[in-house]
Amino acid sequence: MSDLETVIGYQFKNKELLREALTHSSYANERKSKHIKYNERLEFLGDAVLSIIVSDYIFKNCPELPEGELTKLRASLVCERSLFEFAKKINLGSYLLLSKGEHHNGGADRPSIVSDAFEALIAAIYIDGGIEPASKHILNFVIPAIKSSKKKKVNDFKTTLQEIVQKNPGEQLEYVLVGESGPDHNKHFVVEVHLNSNVIGKGGGKSKKEAEQQAARVALELMGY
């Protein structure tokens, strides 16, 4: 447990809380002891703490997103898949207390078990140290995930532009090749993006796809995105 404390950068005052967060119900059931606490109750609390901290962060730091997009972003950050990826970064599965059968069946690598333990760990930190260390722990994973998500979205300018235009039924986008120059090994393409036959962006690149992306980027800038 001390190794995990070092990894997450938090030292527990009450070590039993950490042990409880790492204990799966199968471990307690195998030992047939009512005195062994397992992590299901902590998971319940951790889920709530995670949600409020993520909601607070994206509300304050993503002012450009409307309510619907904030909801989608939060859902993507607190889902089992994301929590499992966060947990793998600290190798959380290797610290879990599992029954022999669960361990043999790969429980330490099962997304449902590991993601639940990640939420339980959040609750343990929250109970032991309060909201600040819990928030710090969560944001160590969430902030890089948000930056990665934004980077992917920004790099796909065509998709972003299409999503914006689709909000207004009846409007259509079209990418038109207006220029091509250079030898075969070093071509340069120029593309215009049209919205209902009106030019809203123009871009160039070494391929038609790159030129289209650049045209979409210019259009987004002109539209204030």
Description of the structure:
A three-stranded antiparallel sheet has the order 1-2-3, with helices on one face. The chain has eleven helices and three strands; from the N terminus they run ααααααααααβββα. The chain has 225 residues and is mainly alpha-helical. The chain is 61% helix and 11% strand.
Write out key terms for the chains shown.
225 residues, mainly alpha, 11 helices, 61% helix, elongated
Radius of gyration: 24 Å
Order of helices and strands: HHHHHHHHHHEEEH
**Total DSSP helices:** 11
Distance between the termini: 46 Å
The structural class is mainly alpha
- In the sheet with the most strands, the strands line up as 1-2-3
Largest sheet: number of strands, sense, barrel closure:
3 strands, antiparallel
Give the overall silhouette.
elongated
Number of strands: 3
Helix content: 55-70%
Estimate what percentage of residues fall within beta strands. 5-15%
Low-confidence stretches: none
